[in-house]
Records
---
Amino acid sequence: MKKIAQFLLAVVIVAFVYVIYQQISTPLRFEQELKVKRAQVIERIKDIRTAQRAYKSKYHKFTADFDTLANFILNEKLEMERKLVDEDDSVGMAMLKRLRKKNVEKFQIAVIDTIFSPKKLTAEDVHNLRYIPGTNNKAEFIMEAGIITTESKVVIPVVECRAPYKAFLDTVTFRQEIINKIDDDVNNFNRYPGIKFGSMEGGNNEAGNWED
């Protein structure tokens, strides 16, 4: 009986230690996962924002369609300008004046070759922009675009792209931690529970909520 009692006590102690370990380690593991996954999502959503800004520079609006955005990146060009001579070059400037030419030359460059510089994106990278990292290409960013009229009667294009925490965090292992994180963001900080840029409610220069 004594050995049985000692064995049962050992089992209880081990279980108690395990519970304490889980209570301590789970929040730490969640914070590590949040840090890593959040960084991956931010890196990709920044590329989406870069592409949207370039698209707007050409078409004066944003797009809500990832196929349209990918086609723009892979197949279209942007018109750029460069100076022909340095403005401190008096001889060159005098020659331009004599030729009645402006000190500006326009040229075109492929979108994919310029907007992400110095980073290089492949065609596969571009097609995968729609997918939230860490989801095995199953979950897509939620992207909206449109036109709104401000209180001062100015018509402006707007865009919003977002990835909710539930889409890229482990909702099984960290179920309660994610519930707490979402509740904290929504009710205590009044912010979107995830990663996003832009707003469909007003122009905010496509600000990202990670930049707050």
Note: The chain has six helices and five strands.
---
Amino acid sequence: MPKKEHINIVFVGHVDAGKSTTVGRILYETGRVPEQMIAKLKEEAQRLGKATFEFAYVMDRMKEERERGVTIDISHQDFETNKYFFTIIDAPGHKDFVKNMITGASQADGAVLVVSAKDGIQPQTIEHAALLKVLGISQLIVLISKMDAVNYDKATYEKVKGDVQNLLKKFAYKNVEQIPVIPASSYFGDNLVKKSDKMSWYSGPTLFEALDTFTPPKKPTDRPLRMPIQDVYNIQGFGVVVVGKVESGIMKPGMKAVINPGGYVVEVKKIETHHQEIPEAVPGDNIGVNVKGVEKTQVKRGFVLGDANNPPAVVKSFKAQIAVLNHPSAIGVGYTPVFHAHTTHFPAKIVEIVAKLDPKTGQPVNEKVEFLKNGDVAIVKIEPLKPVVIEKASDYPALGRFAIRDMNQTVAAGIVIDIERAQ
């Protein structure tokens, strides 16, 4: 394993903003993808009438090839900067991107928000910026992509930059002026790894220089073990392998653990990351774990593997602070949308609006509220309609943040402030 510190990163932004091309180009520039593969994909892209899509195909092609070989890190790719070892989470290119984006963002330590110079801010740009904020991702880089499509024009860049900064201020991001906003052409590699000679007017960092200013997360090794499960495989010769990212605690082969919901007691046999067996896993590690004592059919994505003496909490209800982002009408008691948290999603009902909060101060407003509308922040009580693991955000941040989806869009997002365990 690399000796560099590890950071998980997610690329987000509106569909067609250039996420996949950016990721493909980075993997190519850092030597993760050979020249001949790009040449082959270029031919294929032209044949399919998708000229300039060769870098975007890198991720999709790899995903296909990896799925055939069933490796442990299906939706992850890694690369190194001078300072850090990065894992790209839940690569773009999914039809149902937002759902995966929520799963991905809940595991990320930092994010790159990709905005097209040609199109500027789009609906998903707004949605993703709001989600990153609510999911607690404070380390952000903005990449203004497709500068080649606007002839590397400084005025266009300045306008889009101003729009994005205003958007981030609206969502109460701190120190917006200090967030790097980088003009780039991912297709031609301008300002990703190497400085571009086509934008001499820009004196800021390249994407790689900006990534090296990120701070790796603190590793809560002193807390009980928690690993939300992202995938489950039955691998010949090994048995059941669960895949996920360790959020807290330390995992070692030979230890007993519990998978909830279900209370399955398992033994950890072997731990792998990026095809290498490791003697222990710590928070931040994306791993595959060979477990004994459970069948593949019993465990699903969204279950959580945890400490045998302090099992993951299956909840009867939970209290949360939510922000309503984008609901066409209003949210009231009895509303039953789909909640997305860590790697799980589940239907749940709002059973009480406990208090409405002043968004600026966070203090309760002295009025009884029947409904919540866009822009409202409130404390609500929620009851899941099926067994699910949720934890307080103050104990396990990644297991205590969620987004609420309805009608194919994110309508609200929030954090868990208290839980009532199921009996």
Note: Residues 154-170 form the longest helix (17 residues).
---
Amino acid sequence: MRNFLTIFAVLIAFSTQAPLAFSQGDDQSWLFERKILGVNSLIPIADINGTYEYDYAGAVARVERLDGSPFCTAARVGKNLFLTNFHCDYDCDSTQFSMGVEQGKTVAEKVTYLCKELVHKTEEFDYALYRVELAPNAPQIEYPILTLSAAPVYLDQSVFVASHPSGRLKEVDVSDECVISDIVPVLTDSGRNTIKHMCDTEGGSSGSPVIDRQTGHAVGLHWGGKTDLYNMAIPMALILKNLKAELPRSTFSQLKVVGLGRSGN
């Protein structure tokens, strides 16, 4: 209880004296730590325009308050569904998801979806799934839908993470060092079963999909990290198993899923 009150007090003080604190999970220290591992490998997403990675990253959105203030990252995982972290759950009525927030795109190419309903969330796997609707007067641009993979991850798997670090325009780590570094889920103090990756992120990257370089499928959901050591992600296989158990079949079928066999998509 004392820890909760301390964090609550810090949040109140910070919200009245400084800009928005970007979410980044790391047990109790997630509020302010950054997770750049060695040399900063984050680059503007526009720098890889014309690549498969750029196309896959088109499904990544910025999570914002209705006034446009950013605080997390999400991915479009169904025609009207977005996936982000549990700890990014602000308030559906006050949340929107904006796509195309990147260097090289005009304001007219920004497509915003308003949160309509929290479909399901769980702290154990640190995910929240939302149903959305297109904002009034939004341009009729169809951004990609990300495929979620239940396939097991493997050591040194080449991945990339596109996100909105510190709420900036979309950036990405596509360096050679951006790999899965530990495939055995470790139970953290906060109760999350997490694997480790070495892709650079910052506060605001929470909710970013960890995407396999070869297939373009999301194999994890980034949620936090240990400064100068590693970053952390929930295996997508665990998230999909939980979603399949918790969602009505009609809702689960709206996700683009691979690796679940005949009973999956």
Note: Residues 1-34 have pLDDT under 50 and may be disordered.
